[in-house]
Amino acid sequence: MTETIKGPASYFPSIEKKYGRPIAEWKALVRAAYPARHMELVAMLKEQHGMGHGHANAIVAHTLAEDKA
């Protein structure tokens, strides 16, 4: 039985398909913009890369959670 991906990572396949870059590259962009706050990072992805709010939020939330752990 395969486990269903939940949370922000569930958006990753559609993000890669729509924007043509692997998630690792998006996470690197987010990390390069540290120490910005969550919504500042979301706004950066939206404004500089044309990403939709949900996709940008998923990448930022997942990246921040990884780095907090």
Automatic annotation (TrEMBL):
Protein's organism: Prosthecodimorpha hirschii
Top-level taxon: Bacteria
Annotated protein name in UniProt: DUF4287 domain-containing protein
One Pfam family, short name: DUF4287
Origin organism lineage: Bacteria, Pseudomonadati, Pseudomonadota, Alphaproteobacteria, Hyphomicrobiales
